[in-house]
Write a structure and sequence with these properties.
The chain is α+β, with helices and mostly antiparallel strands. The chain contains four helices and four strands, in the order αβαβαββα. The chain has one domain: Glutaredoxin, CATH 3.40.30.10. It has a four-stranded mixed beta sheet, with helices on one face. This is Lipoprotein.
């Protein structure tokens, strides 16, 4: 019985550590200001195309016109942190963070544009 209790304790401890790592990864990417957005593009091998970067920059400009500050960053999935393991992201996935955590999750830039348009409309 003690042996089983020990196994259960170790499993719970390991599960708690895993959840903490993903929470720390999210906190590293969240914005510090209340209504600021941080757009993160995740990639495996190569950074996004110039067209994708231009679309993301256009989204940032659109948000600035709506008085919503934003920033864009590009993260390699298996760089310093393994974001695929921590956040479950795939190549070309875009996450948008606010001060609370993940606000939007999109695999397609056009879907993200629709989400951003809904955000900026009253």
């Amino acid at each position: 019985m003690r042996k089983w209790l020990g196994y259960i304790l170790v499993i719970l401890l390991l599960a708690g550590c895993g959840a903490g790592a993903s929470q720390r990864a999210i906190q590293d990417l969240t914005s510090t200001m209340e209504n600021e957005l941080h757009i993160v593009y995740f990639y495996e091998q190569e950074r996004p195309s110039e067209q994708m970067e231009a679309q993301l920059t256009g989204m940032k400009v659109f948000l600035a016109r709506k008085n919503i500050p934003s920033s864009i960053s590009y993260r390699k999935i298996d760089g310093e942190k393994n974001y695929e393991e921590l956040l479950g992201v795939k190549d070309g996935q875009i996450l948008v963070f606010d001060y609370k955590g993940i606000r939007f999750n999109a695999r397609n830039i056009h879907v993200l544009e629709g989400m951003i348009l809904q955000l900026s409309n009253p």
